[in-house]
Amino acid sequence: MGSELIFRGHETQPVADAYSPKPPKPWLSVIRPIRYMLREQRLVFVFVGIAMATLVFTLLPSSNVPIYNIPISNSYLTSESTQPHRIIYQNGHVARFPSFNSGGKIPLGLKRKGLRIVVTGGAGFVGSHLVDRLMGRGDSVIVVDNFFTGRKENVMHHFGNPRFELIRHDVVEPLLLEVDQIYHLACPASPVHYKHNPVKTIISFTPIQFRTLNMLGLAKRVGARFLLTSTSEVYGDPLQHPQVETYWGNVNPIGVRSCYDEGKRTAETLTMDYHRGAGVEVRIARIFNTYGPRMCIDDGRVVSNFVAQALRKEPLTVYGDGKQTRSFQFVSDLVEGLMRLMEGEHVGPFNLGNPGEFTMLELAQVVQETIDPNAKIEFRPNTEDDPHKRKPDISKAKELLGWEPKVPLRKGLPMMVTDFSQRIFGDHKERGSSTSSA
Question: Where are the coiled-coil regions (predicted)?
Fold first, then answer.
């Protein structure tokens, strides 16, 4: 019986068709979120949450801004239209509230971002008032001072504030900081101080042989805006009256005042070179005679000399014939001008001063009227290179910065007198008590 062998190894097996799903529907990515929101009334909860958040931001006040008391018995006068903050008197102190938006409340997270600012010479007369304004508007301030003319007492009221730092440092040496703005005020500005160490005075503004100007170098490295406080002394004994910013001056380069005059002129040159060559944002202010609380009592400047002498019952010393003229601005006006210049878009230079012009005899008479009508006037030989006339033309500042001084001499002088009398007679009382105890 025969058998039939069948070899099935190479038979082709039937292969099932590959699985092919339905093509995706393009509108599902839109429909699914809508179905999710409509399911279980989720959309209602979303609208309720938005309404509650709106109610909270409308009814609750914005975050409280801390109050910083400035220990000056008389605040300097300011115009409400030009001040970026309000001033409220509390027990003889000045409470400063930054007013970021006078039109309404500002929700949390939408306030003006505070800047990080360094003020060289910030413990000095002008610098400390500038620090008060910057702190009052909510900025973080680093004061750099070697205390050659500055006083720690001028900024002590900020010591407990986390936004305030004080560094004892001489700007002749390098300094590394991360800041947004630099106000460069560090230099002895009174004749007594800059004549005491003329070499250091000019070094404070010019590079030593192997080093660039440190604060301009810092501004270049960190991209900060740099403001140089220059001086009316760059005009020397001017042949033009009043002085405009385009006037190049009449300076004696080898006189006793040249360390200060030429130092400031060189500082302006370096500032503009950094601006043109390195792209540093710079501002230049030429400051005219300024007075007010916290001035050094015996710094040799005419206003502080007259006030201190009148309080001490000493003769008011007038040098020369007393016909030399000066213009005197109150410190609050200067600080306002510096801040407007820094925040503005113009490089400068800008004259910042009060165009009201007084002879030295007229100033002595105003001091007599304010302090002691019986005070005597004593004439002495004039000092070398003393300018005969000094008056700023502030047309440029009025037009481009919207700035002009507000405080006349007869209103500002009493505030300075109060500060000087507290310090002079306070020192006398302390010395008397220490002598008696000894």
Answer: none
